[in-house]
Amino acid sequence: QQPVQSPQAVILREGEDAVINCSSSKALYSVHWYRQKHGEAPVFLMILLKGGEQKGHDKISASFNEKKQQSSLYLTASQLSYSGTYFCGTEIYNTDKLIFGTGTRLQVFP
Amino acid sequence: GAGVSQSPSNKVTEKGKDVELRCDPISGHTALYWYRQSLGQGLEFLIYFQGNSAPDKSGLPSDRFSAERTGGSVSTLTIQRTQQEDSAVYLCASSLGGTGANVLTFGAGSRLTVL
After folding, report:
1. Which of A71, B27, B85, B101 could pair with A22 in a Cys bridge, judged by C-beta atoms 3.0 to 4.6 Å apart?
2. Lowest-confidence range among A22-31, A55-64, A67-76, B80-89?
């Protein structure tokens, strides 16, 4: 049931872009994205509901392809503050529990 | 309270001892989760409580693990006869619950070290 994230790790220079992918084998009702900084608890970024919507949050946006059970997180013009581990959380149809992916570690250097 | 509160923040125990970890969710949040995060790893689902429904225990790794939620609020995760592989950060999260509305707020976690 656990969604698969790729890549496992990303290293960027400030200002560069990155894409993180999340894929599930189950039909999804929603996809969530969270960011966890070192030594801290995960923090909610955004939620995408079925319907193939795309959302944005500052220079971070995401899409959800319901038919493919895939979501992508787009980070543009990355900042040092974007460093952390990104988790997608998937809500499978007919359940409302949230199962998290394996995580993608993002490091942004000056 | 304003956020999700977990205690203790750190617990060191000897192999074979029992431990209890406590979670106090945000007032009014009907859904409560426990996750385990081993060093450098992802968020492993353990158990999920939603309102008065029977909890989803499908993520508990063995029968040494159990959890209760009293009065729809405070939850306790109990690990019996602890093993070294139980060492991890145990994270609690709560939400308003309901399909599509399950935005989680996490507590700071309880770091368990089994010697």
Report:
1. A71
2. A55-64
From A69's Cα to the closest Cα of chain B, the distance in A is 15
Chain A interface includes B96 (CB < 8 A): no
Helix (H, G, I), strand (E, B) or coil at B57: coil
Whose structure tokens read 């570690």? A105
Structure tokens at A40: 């801290």
Query: How many C-beta atoms surround the C-beta of residue A22 within 10 A?
Result: 28
Residues in A touching B107 (Cβ below 8 Å): 41
B46 touches chain A (CB under 8 A): no
CATH C-level class of A4-109: mainly beta
**Domains in chain B with CATH codes:** 5-103 (2.60.40.10)
pLDDT digits (tens, 9 = 90+) for B65-95: 999 998 879 999 999 999 999 999 999 999 9
Q: Give contacts of A84 with chain B, Cβ < 8 Å.
A: none
Q: Does A107 touch chain B (CB under 8 A)?
A: no
Q: How many CB pairs under 8 A join A and B?
A: 61
- Taking the C-alpha atoms of residue B112 and residue B8, their distance in angstroms, rounded to an integer, is 9
